[in-house]
Amino acid sequence: MPKPAPSPSNNRTLAISSQAKTLDLHGRHRDEVFRSAEGSLSNCLSETHLDRTVPGLKSIAKGKVRDVYEGKEHLVLVTTDRQSAFDRVLASIPFKGQVLNETSLWWFNKTVHITPNAVVCVPDKNVTIAKKCSVFPVEFVVRGFVTGSTDTSLWTVYSNGVRRYCGNLLPEGMVKIRSCLQIYSRLQLSQQIMMFQSLLTR
To answer: Please, what are the domains in the chain?
Structure first.
């Protein structure tokens, strides 16, 4: 006897594309994704040596995740599948570099109307070719929750007694894994966004 079709309300689905099949996170498509990932474990991009195979390229940096090569007028940034945490490379994860590179490109495309960026082209899902440019030495770290374990994480500094961090006055009585939205009002958040936008357009 055939099993009844699952109720739509019990199915969480993720549309991959208008042409692709719906990914049923509780069904067989999830199993297909896991099998594909498992089959790719031996095919992770953990090391790159483009300077040995591409004439004119020079290796100038190897980070925890990205390898950077220099050409005449451009940089070649290769996002590997290396997974880092606690300032260490722990393992390699299939497709991680592709996801990270394409996430960066998504944000570059979304902010290009605010400020130009260095992206020239993307010849591979793990590779971005960028213009050489002067570095603007500012890093934005956005966190949704009061948590973390490194020396600079919000929870670490807060539990050590710090109440003014990165220009923000933190209230007493905060607990770990608390949403930052509970700390700041919508007005404060909009003021922060406006400040970031003004920095980007200078």
So the answer is: 8-39 (no CATH), 50-131 (3.30.200.20), 145-200 (no CATH)
Structure confidence at residue 197 as a pLDDT band (50, 70, 90): low
Q: Which two tokens stand for residue 171?
A: 């209230």
Residue entry with tokens 């005449």: 72
Which residue, chain included where needed, has tokens 């950077």? 68
Taking the C-alpha atoms of residue 14 and residue 21, their distance in angstroms, rounded to an integer, is 9
- 104: three-class secondary structure by DSSP: helix
* Per-residue model confidence as pLDDT tens digits over 87-121: 788 889 888 999 999 999 999 999 999 888 999 99
Q: Are 96 and 104 in contact (CB under 8 A)?
A: no
- The DSSP string of 6-75 is PPGGG--EEE--SSSPEEETTSHHHHHHHHHHHHTGGG------HHHHSTT-EEEEE-SSEEEEE-SSEE
Give this prediction's pTM.
0.60
